[in-house]
Fold each of these.
Amino acid sequence: MRTLSGIPASSGRASGRVVRVADAPGEPPVGPAPLDPAAEAARIAPAVAVVAARLEARAATVTGDARDVLEATVAMVTDPALLDYARDLVTGGGRPAARAVYEAAGAFADLLTGMGGYMAERARDIHDVRDRIVAELLGLPAPGVADLDAPCVLVAADLAPADTAGLRPGIALALVTEQGGPTSHTAILARSLGIPAVVGCAGATSIAEGAAVVVDGATGVVQEVTEVVEQENGAVVAAEWDGVGRTSDGHGVPLLANVGEAKGAVTAAGLRAQGVGLFRTELAFLSAAEEPSVARQHEVYAGVLAAFAGLPVTARTLDAGADKPLPFLTLDGEPNPALGVRGLRVARVPGPGSDVLDRQLATLAAAAAETGAELKVMAPMVATAEEARWFVARCREHGIRSAGVMIEVPAAVLTAHEVLAEVDFASVGTNDLAQYLFAADRQSGPVAALNDPWQPALLRLLRLLGEASAATGTPVGVCGEAAADPALAPVLVGLGMATLSMGAGALAAVGASLAGASLEDCRERAEAACAAADPAAARQAVAELAVKQAG
Ligand code: PEP
Ligand code: MG
């Protein structure tokens, strides 16, 4: 196990698994010269506009230093001098657009580097802007940090300001960069967000994705370790989670994994998931133009089920539509796909969906019988008790003994007693439930704050579900991203949630968090969070209560 050392940039100690940040697109070739230089030059401004709009959207979701940095980056992107110079390089210099942007930004960055000190640090910002525009012109994915859904330590050659500005403490546990200095934006923002950070850490990018590390932002030491360790009262102690989800007084809460294919399932099993709470079956088929053959489906399903022989695996039937269109199921030209024929609805309108559902259920049942996993099947986007009854009947026809629904539509919460009476279990998709509760697109940056899982309105809906679960005896779990937040997990349990399912990287942290609270503690935290006026107040109330309960 190696110990690396860098510049302490933001104090605090944290431990987690490494997520590597996507690389920049690299240097575009000098040629071939464009056939129509004017048309080629005209591509630059729209690409700049797209990048600027993305950064603006991200800026709108944050405040303070983070917003200032993003707004400064937008100003750099839209600098008319940069744009003019790049266009001249196309029309006068015969460069392809991407190359022209690369060279124009390079000249600006060189100027800043020549000035030294603080200005030289800003050269990194120009490079970030350049990489984003170049990626857009080349049709490549935007470089930088993808949406993070589980706590992790971010490791990068360097982090751009636009990357650090969108980070959330609790998810980004610590930052480690190979480059950067103490006044780099990574350092400034890490400090303002209270995230431990080490910059200028030679060898950081040789740490493998998924490796467990301890980062000490006060001393600049980054240690590779065999297991993630938990921070407690400023000292690092061994992780408490023993692989069985339960509160400190023994109330069992199985901790399950969200997976999409066999490889992820094997990783999740290795991280001691007690089963799969959400197998997103559609993910394997997002690029399939036609319904995958039964043989192909069998291969995908059996791959996941085999990793959990003897344990529960909850497969969700194809959740086609909106953010996850499946060409063979999704209707063309719907004006508002998020509110259209999606999820279970594709099986209930005229068209191929009903047969596709039957083939999927039959294939899942056959794969489960072979692998020995305990198959549970649930339907996405269920709004009424009648839909739940219909789906359960379809499952029974295929011999599936445990059939349930996802709770993602507020109507299903308000009729929870009736819905739960129809099913063997339910699982809350907090991502969509929040989106429909707040009328806030889950993919839209400017409304992201409404989709915060600590929103008291969302937590109060979960409380209604917990009450209906207790009254009907039907277990309700959570499989949306809310379940991956270690501070929120005891709240969810206190609200009456029976299982928590999450990206496997979050299991140990959530398990350790639950092990530190009794069921009564969880209930008190749930009440405090529900009573709060907004997400910040809910977080604070729960954090204060946790300290009090620990004392
Ligand atoms: C959810 O909506 O919370 C959920 C778990 O499903 P998905 O994110 O796949 O829509
Ligand atoms: Mg969903």
Amino acid sequence: MTPITQTITPATPDTDSEHVRHDWALAEILALFDTPLNDLLFEAQCVHRRHFDPNTIQVSSLLSIKTGACPEDCGYCPQSAHHHTQLERERLLSLDEVLVAAKQAQEQGATRFCMGAAWRNPSDTNLERVVPMIEAVKALGMETCVTLGMLTESQAARLKQAGLDYYNHNLDTSPEFYGTIISTRTYEDRLVTLQHVRDAGIHVCAGGILGMGETRNDRGALLQQLANLPSHPESVPINNLVQVEGTPLQGVEALDPIEFVRSIAVARILMPRAYVRLSAGRLDMSDELQAMCFFAGANSIFYGERLLTTDNPEVNRDRGLLKRLGLRFAPAVSESQPGQ
Ligand code: SAM
Ligand code: DTB
Ligand code: SF4
């Protein structure tokens, strides 16, 4: 099948003042959620086409560089020391181990390599051990992303100096629902870390998790928080909760898949220039559901058989799916597009 290569010409000029807002009211967002699905998808697809090639998907691979025994109590997370999961804790991987994984991801077609550590925050010593990993992965020609927990201003500056492209730090849910999921750090702590990352000039990757038992208002309020940041995150991962035995959220009622699609569409409309990533949870999604998410404006995925500690679809399944949908892997953004 030949993928469509033509990008639709913008119907209106693509200026910030016209399309990119930072003053969304919750009522406006809930009105979008309430829109008949066909209308919502049509609007999201129009917004998407004004800002992106609709047939290209950004592809990132993940590696857990330090697994388990995390002091935080995030209710969804298998890596929290507060929960009794089957996970083996592991020390920080060596530079060689990281490079082997990055090269393999690159050979499979990933253009960004994301390294995650189960830390509340990195110590300065640990940060210096991650710096050579960032430098080495970058030297392969891949974009780099790390997620290490909370950062100070000087740590963010150090990561920028190391050449880091993206820092992932999620808001996870609405400010109102947050306290029922995590007690060991505040929403404000997360916003401060995002500010340090932004101020250091590192691209921000920030999103959340759906399907944790939150209401539609909470989903809307999460997207409102993200869209009303001083600048939109360049990357917005929308995770569907991966339920892991031994975590407090194991057994929570799964989210209606159509509501998940609606959430993607609303994220696309609120943050027109952001890469919206269909993140954790794809393993349990049908090809048709994923296709709807792409139509709703998701244009990025985690690719590779492992997320951090749980499984992701096999690369052959993903390759087959993208081929059937006529979607192409995007080259590294730095090669193809000006900064957002
Ligand atoms: N410890 C760092 C932190 O929390 O910022 C970095 C790693 S942490 C695992 C990164 C993100 O993974 C979390 O913020 C959360 O959004 C997501 N995550 C963790 N467990 C998940 C699960 N079971 N299902 C979906 N997303 C999950
Ligand atoms: C994000 O939003 N999702 C990724 C990444 N950022 C670090 C992590 C998903 C983790 C899913 C559960 C696991 O594999 O441990
Ligand atoms: Fe620790 Fe991050 Fe998991 Fe929370 S999400 S328990 S901070 S690894």
